[in-house]
Amino acid sequence: MHVRFECPACGRPGQLSLASSGDWQCPACDHRHSATTVDPGLATCPLCDNAQLYKKKDFPHGVGLAILTIACVASVFTYAWYEKWLTWLILIGSAAVDGLLYLWVGDAIVCYRCGAHYRGFEARDEHKPFELVVGERYRQERLRREQLK
Fold it and tell me: Where are the beta strands (DSSP E) in 22-132?
């Protein structure tokens, strides 16, 4: 079970392994984080104690965009060379690769408030996909906190 987060003091990304509850120390600025007990269902965020979490696919977006870009560029060339069957093969093949990656890659649970990514936890029914309204509320909260500083 791993967690990736931004340090609230310095904003640098950190990555830790969750073995038990206790104090975590930022590897960049030595800021200490107090964590609550980590339950296997992950009902709340151990870093900020927020109960609103969402699930997303644990896949780097850059790789997905690279697959799509390569398929589109290759299909333009094959279509220009009048190789329509090869064009369809490239486009359908990239869609098949994308579908297989979607099925193969697991989920990560993310906190709306602090943005911590939790891997190795089983997503439950209360972990819904990202909701824009909730995400915008927490984004506005972050902006207000920064303005008050």
Answer: 23-25, 32-34, 53-57, 107-111, 117-119, 128-129
